[in-house]
Amino acid sequence: MKRLFLGCLIAAAAFGQSRPDLMRPVGVGENPHFLITEDGRPFFWLGDTGWEMIHRLTREETEFYLDRRAEQGFNVIQTVLLSEFNGLTVPNAYGDLPLIGKDPTMPDTTSGADPSDANAYDYWDHVDFALHAAADRGMVLGLVAAWGEYVVPRVGGKCFDTAEQAYVYGRFLGNRYRKSPNLVWILGGDRHPDERTGGIALWRAMAEGIADGTNGENRMDGKADFSTTCMTHHAFGSSSLWFHGDPWIDFHIWGSYHSDFSIARAYEQAGSDWALKNPKPTLNGEPAYENHPVNWLQNNDRFTAYDTRQIAYWSVFAGACGHTYGCHEVWQFFDNRREPVSFAVIPWKKALGLDGAGQMHYLKRLVESRPMQEMSPDQSLVGDGAGSGSNTVRACRGKHYAFVYIPTGYPVTIRMGRIEGRRVTAWWFDPRTGEAARIGEYENTGERLFEPPGISKSLAWLRTGRGCDWVLALDDAEGGFGAPGAVRPPAP
């Protein structure tokens, strides 16, 4: 198994980790579609896009943000080292920049790390603090090494000119954080690597530098050992388009982004990556953000909690190994001190409590309540009522269970016999509340029509349309399962 971290005990000791049970190394196991912990347990990636956290937040604000997201069940925070918003020229909350003269081979570091001493506490000490704070809460940081603009510029923000620069910067990162127990490296950042001639080579050189720094090597020869790192690449397109065969890519990330409601890409890209030869885990790392204006236009509607649920369940049931949520005001940490990006309106601390953020962990709980490593997409479960567009039904199953996501509440016919067992127990799982209600027990043969209920007791009449989404869960009646989302299966 290729591991995410160098070693649980060494890393935990280096970080003073008080909760080692939550911080196990993660990698890819025998099933190439999923992430697992070093001891073989499934790891469902539930991320939040805190892109500007390191650049904009104080230590106290960082802890406030991480506390809230940890309470909501998130286990990964995606954030950026060389930040998107003038990260090379606008200092962080403590007046520090990451580089000297915007030179990626010259990180601006000082001796000491005392946060009360402005001359000692530098930009990279603040990154150290963020990693420590996340580890203390049992969370992984997905660190974007440099926002894509600095490698593949669209608006003149180029920072990296040569592969040697990318390697040296990557080696600095790998060496500094080689013992961090809660770290995934994310290269890229919106930009496709082939938008710039030579862009692919630059990212590969940075990946090599990170690995060599992690391993204590310093030779740019294209022969790095990537067994001690975990890396991926972030853009609109899946990293499988450019790097599927590269040894540094452990899993794929892509984004369905913010252009419209009911973006079919949420399940199409997941399914495409699932079907690749020699597959790797894949996930939707930048979906439509809650409260983001549709297609970035001020007077358009904004994405709601329902939209974040629809995209998440579509992606995961189509083959993603987890999901990343995003909130428009949170990723940029908008408040009255800052100019809003793309018409942000709610202060970020208030936006932390939007409904979608509180509902994401219900998906994680649902998947973890059944043997996740057995789960695979299977549309053959769905007969009449499979739908199209915003009504598209997505289904997945294991050996003894199945999940069917019904996005708009319309009846659907299920082809029985796709899971093992003589009889099947059926449940309605509510993605708004995480509650499950038993429907009944049926013979596991033929076809059966299921009609979703109203979305709540007080709104029993509201059965179809936006917001009326349900998960139909089917279990082998003799499989010994508890209610969906409530009880985890026994550890292997």
Describe the structure.
The protein is an alpha/beta fold. The chain folds into two domains: 372 residues, Alpha-Beta Barrel (TIM Barrel), CATH 3.20.20.80; 99 residues, Immunoglobulin-like (Sandwich). The protein has twelve helices and 22 strands. The strands form six sheets. Strands 11-10-9-6-5-14 form a six-stranded parallel β-sheet. Strands 15-16-17-22-19-20 form a six-stranded antiparallel β-sheet, covered by helices on one side. The relative contact order is 0.10. The N terminus is likely disordered.
List keywords for this structure.
single chain, 492 residues, alpha/beta, TIM Barrel, Immunoglobulin-like, 2 domains, six-stranded parallel sheet, six-stranded antiparallel sheet, 12 helices, 24% helix, globular
The unreliable regions are: 3-24
Count the E strands.
22
Strand order within the widest beta sheet: 11-10-9-6-5-14
CATH class of the largest domain: Alpha Beta
| SS field, number of helical segments | 12
Structural category: alpha/beta
How would you sum up the global shape?
globular
Q: What's the CATH superfamily of the largest domain, by name?
A: Glycosidases
- Give the helix level as a range of percent: 10-25%
What oligomerization state is this entry in?
A: single chain
Alpha-carbon Rg, integer: 23 Å
The end-to-end distance, rounded to whole angstroms, is 17 Å
By CATH, the architecture of the largest domain is named: Alpha-Beta Barrel
Mean pLDDT: 93
Give the number of domains: 2
What amount of the residues lies in strands? 15-25%
Major sheet size, sense and barrel closure: 6 strands, parallel
CATH topology of the largest domain: TIM Barrel
